[in-house]
Amino acid sequence: MTPIRGPLARLDSSRDELAKAWLVRLIERASLEEISELPTDRIARELPALIGDIVGSVASTNGDPYELSEEQTKRAAALAALRSGRDTSAAEVARDVAALQTVLVRALRDELAESDPDRFADAVEQLADATGAIQAAAVEELVRRRSRELESQANTDPLTGLGNLRHLQTQIAHLLELHKRYGNPFAVLLMDIDGLKRINDAHGHQAGDRVLMQVAMSMRRSIRNVDVAARIGGDEFCVLAPEQDVEAASTLAERLANAVGEEVAGNEEPPVGLSVGVASCPQHGTEAETLIDTADRAMYRAKAAGEDVALGEPPPAEVAEEAKT
Hints:
- This protein is an alpha+beta fold and 325 residues long.
- It has helices at residues 5-13, 15-28, 32-37, 40-59, 70-78, 90-112, 117-154, 165-182, 196-203, 205-222, 246-263, 288-305, 316-324, and strands at 186-194, 228-231, 236-242, 273-281, 309-311.
- Strands 2-3-1-4-5 form a five-stranded mixed sheet, sandwiched between helices.
């Protein structure tokens, strides 16, 4: 047994009271808006267990106090989301955990400071190590979460929530790599909204933005989970369809055009439609630029012919070979 097990046992048995004391300290230095954003239900549910983690780490005579178990790390990481309703800094997360350490030290002081100051000093040092591990895990999770958010923002079209051109370029490069390694086919569907300019001219750009968002929602409902949808220009969209040749992808293209016709066009005046061009790898090429260009030319053929969908033409070498036969 460690010499501080008795006082620590009493700390462990007082988890709920210590959690309340910590929450009070958070509220004391928070604005009214911040208080309303604190997830008190989650704090009440998770903080007592977190306090038990810290106390257990201090009581242990073995191991590194900075080595947390997976469950402990998850509980510590939850502290990074306490103020999820606003921009939280690493300094704020660190202060939140420091406030927790203060609560624990005060409780321990009531047990040991006067009766055994040496043991109190040892216990405080161990508490600092244990809460330091919690603090490090919480700040690390905050950094990871911010990194994910920034990555998402860099790859997302802000109006529709679909991927943007940067995201599309990354995904098509990934699919091309899969094709190079394993021969996996995929299709590229390039789409243009017919009539969006008329909507903008007749009703303003807010009405046009509403149409873009409606088209994006319709696309989400029509594609598979493995497909990638992106808005790559003002009224241009693209879908990447893994494991699909041009014939199979044409079915998806028809479904997209029909969905927009049923869910969007009927709600707008003047009406809108969707022109879709379809290309596939390797049938139409194995380079991103070639595939996009083939789908783009097919899309304009569909638009000129008044049709919903047109398939990409075979590469020039293949056309020449067919002419010889």
